[in-house]
Amino acid sequence: MIYEIHANTAENNRPLALIVGANGGVGSHVSKMLLQRGWRVRAMTRRSAPVDAVDGVERVIGDAMNREDVVKAAKGAGLIVHAVNPPGYRNWDSQVLPMLDNTIAAAEACGARIVFPGSIYNFGPDAFPLLTEDSPQKPFTRKGGLRVEMERRLKMASMRGVPVLIVRTGDFFGPEAKNNWFSQMLVRPGKPVRSVQNPAVPNAGHQWAYLPDVAEIIGRLLDRSDELQTFAVYHMEGVWDFDGLQLVGAIERAVGHPVKMRRLSWLAVGLAAPFVPLFREVMEMKYLWQMPIRMSNRKLVEFLGAEPRTPINAAVSETLASLGCLAEVQQPAGLHHATDAGGRV
């Protein structure tokens, strides 16, 4: 009995993090990273845990659109990871701001830091092609405008004493993540890779973010939370596909044979958009595949010393294996986080 009391006391003394959107790619990987760093993790989801849920995560059912649910789930937390988004690009107008407001209210109630995965949507052509944390935010899309407003509300919260950490990234890919361009456009989950559908126009560079690296960057920044500004923003470089063909090449190396590359027909997507809600949302992001847009990670590297980066071959192999696209699931070599020039893409 004495041992159990001591064990429970030690458990309760560990810091607690709430993940809002834990079933998504960012949420699931940040959960694993925090557990490895000794955090207690509480995940709030609208549905019960999936079969492959992370061991050691306390799961509570709640709706990010319900403020009472979020505030209750955040009780005792020192960190709230806001990793929830409406699925399939839909319902942004009606959901993203109320969900964020609920997270901010919960953070104010329990004194937690907010971690927010940012994106490239905030920026318009006046800031292209190289984006820094301080580039002007003048987007020309509806989603971009919402992203700007989300960050504005987070900054206002930080002025009221809520610490905020924003890590802006490119398009996500990685294990256990199926709601992204990589798994919905480039390849078909559960199928051997015979061809790749590439949304990028020739020679248009594109930025990708491998989810385990995103989580590791967030972890290393939180390791030094005492040194972070109250409103801290960092850009991750991730995988810079400078000609739109680097990921295709990595896919070929992972599957061990050439694959046919087809360019996505944006004309066909546009013609179908009036009838397919998802295509209407996708068309708004077309510009991201038509010109090189790159985030500078200079500020991140100056703070951390290096950006944690998994070599592209290992990252793509692990992603394809998780999606069921490899004939035999292999453990790719070099899955460690590279922190020197040898791990750069």
Q: What labels describe this entry?
A:
7-stranded parallel sheet; 345 residues; disordered C terminus; single chain; alpha/beta; 12 helices; disordered N terminus; 14 strands
Tally of contiguous helical segments = 12
Please mark out the parts with pLDDT under 50 across 5 or more consecutive residues, or reply none. Answer: 1-7, 329-345
Mean pLDDT: 88
> Main sheet: which strands, in order across?
3-2-1-4-5-7-11
In one word, what is the shape? Answer: globular
Major pleated sheet: 7 strands, parallel
Helical content band: 25-40%
**Structural class of the secondary elements?**
alpha/beta
Ends distance: 54 Å
What does this structure look like?
The longest helix is centred in the first third of the chain and has 19 residues. The strands form four sheets. Strands 3-2-1-4-5-7-11 form a seven-stranded parallel beta sheet, sandwiched between helices. With 345 residues, the protein is of the alpha/beta class. The chain starts with a helix and ends in a 23-residue tail after the last helix. It is globular, with a radius of gyration of 20 Å. The chain contains twelve helices and 14 strands. Helix 3 packs parallel to helix 4. The N terminus and C terminus are likely disordered.
